[in-house]
Amino acid sequence: MTDSRAIFCLECGSENVTEEVSEVTANVRGRTVVLPADRHMRCGACGSISHPGKMADQHLEAIGERIREEDGLLSVADLKEIRTRYGLQQEEMEALIGTGPKTWVRWERGRVVPSPQSDKVIRRIAEDPRYLLQLMEEKGVSNETALGVIEEACEREVRTHSDAFRASPAPERQPVEVIVSSVLGRGSEVRKRLFDVRKAYVDIDATIARHKERVPVDVEGLARDLGISIARDTRMTMGSSGSITRETRPTGAAGFLISVNGREHPHRQRFTIAHEVAHYVMHRDRIGNGITEPVLNRNLDGQDPIEREANAMAAELLMPENSLREAFAETNDAAELARRFKVSHESMGWRLFGLGLTKVRPRQN
Ligand SMILES: [Zn+2]
Ligand SMILES: [Zn+2]
User: What SUPFAM superfamilies does this protein's entry cite (predicted)?
Assistant: First the structure.
């Protein structure tokens, strides 16, 4: 100790106080922490120890380090690395984790230790950029640097997974790892939403079965859960209902993008999505770079066999036979059924006819 101030014991007033390094047991919020080599002043008269000046900081930092070690918490260096990796400010971290002001500063100084719950949140932020994005939206934290880092990470991940996914043969019956992405909006929102990506183990059959349980079937959700991206195109010619194309720069693991003519009636759009999903499930190894659909017919006649197959599957996706028969037992009003299943009257007409629930053959238009 180079301090020239007269040092005396705060307990007994003795000036017989000397610096030493020895094991000390500290009590921190009801917890006993052993520090094997603690630097402190010890009173020769009464034996009490104290941590004047810088010793107090070192003592608190050592306690923090010990607790982090014992509890397997992130180190001070980890905390700083995770925060700066995303270009986030300390106050922003506090807002994201929901702790009081100045908390993060203390954590990074090492004198205060995050709770195990906070530690878990910080680890998730480190491991999962999409979780960070979700937190940023929830807590109203906007940081362009962080958004850029998140976007890059997601893009990298999508590329890796879609390469692997596309190398797998179709149709896929085994659970495969896919990335699910969505393009939900247009304009500036697209950039942020584009990489709303999550990883999941998806069994195509099981995913379809799960979605068919709820009427009206969320066909867009189904496509996304299968790793197919969807874009609504409001400038598409009215001569086309939509398309499914192989993406050169995949935004989903499926590596396919369904474009829907946003100017068609929402019910027709649903049919188009279902039809394209059907192409993906049944024909994705046969459609080359994709298929652009002329305005889709809902019937099963004529046409290319691939188109007939896709229409049949689309009808079953949107109007699952079991659910439709159940609903038909309540009402045979085709208009009411079309409303319940969110399909066009035309589609419902063909479906009822196809299942033999009506003898009325819909008019061809
Ligand atoms: Zn003393
Ligand atoms: Zn088609």
Answer: lambda repressor-like DNA-binding domains
Helix H or strand E encompassing 4: none
Distances (CA, A) of 356 to 100, 253, 275, 321, 360: 66, 39, 22, 11, 9
Q: Give the whole-angstrom CA distance, residue 249 versus residue 181.
A: 13
Q: Report, in this order, helix, strand and coil percent for the chain, each rounded to 5.
A: 45, 15, 35
Distance 3 CA to ligand 2 centre (A): 85
Neighbours of ion ligand 2 (CB under 5 A): 293, 307, 310
Ligand nearest to the CA of 15: 1
Going from the Cα of 41 to the center of ligand 1, the distance in angstroms, rounded, reads 10
d(CA 7, CA 258): 78
Token pair listed for 39: 């630097």
| Residue 12 neighbours by CB distance under 10 Å | 12
Cα 138 → chain centroid = 13
Query: Going from the N-terminus, what domains does the chain have, and what CATH number goes with each?
Result: 17-71 (3.10.20.860), 76-139 (1.10.260), 180-365 (no CATH)
| DSSP of 40-84 | EEEETTT--EE--THHHHHHHHHHHHHHHHHHTPPPHHHHHHHHH
Span from the CA of 44 to the centroid of ligand 1 (angstroms):
7
H-assigned helices in 72-182: 76-85, 90-97, 103-109, 116-127, 129-139, 144-166
Residue found by looking up tokens 């020769």 in the block: 44
Confidence of residue 193 (pLDDT cuts 50, 70, 90): very low
Query: Which tens digit of pLDDT belongs to each residue from 118-163?
Result: 999 999 999 888 889 889 989 999 998 998 888 787 777 766 666 6
